[in-house]
Fold each of these.
Amino acid sequence: MDIARGAAAAALVAALALGAAAEKMVIPEGTVVKVILDTPLSTKDNKSGDPFTLHLADDEKTGGFPTGTKFHGKLVAVRPKTEKKAGSADVSITRAELPGGHMIEIVALPSNEDGKTKETVTGTSIKEKRKKKGSVIGGAGGLLLGPIGSIGGLVARKTLPEKPDDISAKPGRKGYIKIMQPVTLK
């Protein structure tokens, strides 16, 4: 009889262990998750150490996180714009808050939809602004004036007086984060 009870107890423990293992879900390294910014961020107004939150977008790119998950991060370093350089910030995303309040440690970075990460996020540089405005002027000039208008666009790229921008992101802005280490959800 004791052997039967022992075997039954062992079977019960094994079943519980298998059930607990089945409840765990692992989100693999490299998973890209679509998120929405909750906290306004700006290299003009924020400083190093400021926290921010994101929440999971209602989208097919949840990466396996449950609906309602929030992500917590902080600005590691903030550099406002200067006369020649755009504002930039180093960003770290370290926690996922699951529905119900359970916190999980994560390592994630901002990325594009294809998973290219960017630990440092920057504003628009003078070169980028000139290229964009020069292309618009050149395209419009090309339509109206032919080759001479296109040359005007190239000149505008070099001569337009511009200043670099600070980063400024308002709540509701959509983006992506990339999970840098596997995450186990319980």
Amino acid sequence: MNVADAVSLLGFLFGGGQAAACPDSGAAKDDASLNIAEAIHILTFLLVGEELSPPSPECGPDLTAGELAECNYPQEGC
């Protein structure tokens, strides 16, 4: 996870950018939505060290049910 993740999410939300292949990966607050608060949470993690919802910052399955599409791709390196 890096600044590009927050920038990409903001581009999708406000600039007509392309949605992520895995929408659930952008839900840093794990609240089943994608909004500006997610990008702020990512930046706070990077700049201040605030905790992210599991499994972040590691890779792995999302342990909470949500309305966002789940990711279906190989989780290499886990």
Amino acid sequence: MGRSRGRGYDFWLGLFLAGLILVSIANVLPPGASQALPLLCAISVTPLAALAPLLFQAVRRAAGYEFRRGELWHFAPVAVYAALHFTTAVFVVLGLASGAPGPSWPNIALVALGGGYLVLGYRTVLEARKRGGMGRLGWLTAGATVLWLGWLASTLFPNSITREGAQAAVFVFFYLVGWLGWRQGPAPARVQEKYANSGLTAQSEALVADRVAKFVEGEKAFLDHDLTLGRVARKVGCSPHWVSQYLNGRRGTTFFDYVNGLRVAEFVALARDPAQRDRTILELSLAAGFRNKSTFNAAFKKNLGATPREWLSGVPKDGTIGTVDRRAT
């Protein structure tokens, strides 16, 4: 899953809808437009190659996965499709070719590719179901299925009925986007704006909360100074974005502060343990999961309002905490 630089669900769905509008324009152009307006046809048809990967990205964002730059390869067919159509358009303008209406093998190949992305979308739905949260995925994949079936019929059997059916599917999809978006309403105030479109539902948030607590706190994963957000997310079975959303929205803290707070509490418990009386403060901080002295001192002061040395000097010497070696921290 890893670190992401991607945008959210609305961004990708917006790009998909924009492409769908351009493709719809191509479908309503009058007969002979490929000959009279070849460049306009090329511009309106090219987004057809981007529709499947764009909608797939929207599904991934709704499932809580973040976009990574490596996923840009999904849009390679767009460049190939654009090259084919714009080359043909230039030839038509120069009088070296004529517009060729009707289905073509590139279009059929795109329909097959779209079917592949539909399968990937349903796999994402199943993954989200296992994590306990469906969010927008149900209606989004159902709408994608209807769109793909209309696309398949109008490509393999081009006639007025299939073309009008495909257009009707487009209008229904647009209606669902607007209606369901309106029904959802604004995000709760406690959730930060950057998480508003992640797809994390209340049910899945509860599941994330339970699994994070069991792993990080119950199994004391925080004792590992190499613990990362990505590792926690993999253990929990969700995206790092969802773990961050839970910690920021529900607990009001970052992953870094959450883990270090647990380590400070562990240090305090160790310092109060008579069996640890011969260990230095630095040794106890390392045992509590801190990697180095500076991180420990900063986290300690942030959580308890004092340096470790100041805190120790203020604790009564009761035979436990007072016997901890107070050498330099």
Amino acid sequence: MLEEGREFHRKTSDFAWLLVFGMTCICLIAPFLNVTFFGSSLTFMMVYVWGRRNHNVRMSFLGMFPFTAAYLPLVLLGFSLLLHSSMTLDLLGIFVGHTYYFLEDIYPHMGGSRILKTPTILHLMFGTVPQMTAVVAEPPPEDDVHMQREPQQEPQPQVAPVNVVEADQNDEDIVQ
């Protein structure tokens, strides 16, 4: 759902960059945690990113426990705890997913630059077009003698008719 959803639809290079970032971070952190298989961590990373970007989607666990998608990684983490499996891989995936989500979605909206911009080489490999910022053309100079502008009329504000209702003595006390 992450790849085909609105986040990465027709943005294969951006999705590949998500995977490259996740694999790189997991491979850098894994030796300190004595982890040898990274598939679960990478899956948890993608689940975390999808859950944060689709936080209002209603879900249920085993058809009995309703929650929103933002809590999906925690629900799955709790399920791992119930099954007495190691949560190290799951927590690693959540950490890397949160790092990606923060750097890609939160930090740029706080006024920072977009740190995880997809490299051009990936756009070329997958044939996708990078997102471009709109360029606004400057208006022509106004002192050009060949251009005669007609004065523009400003739109007149429309005023809705107001019904005047006489107030009685009680209404005047309330206003005062």
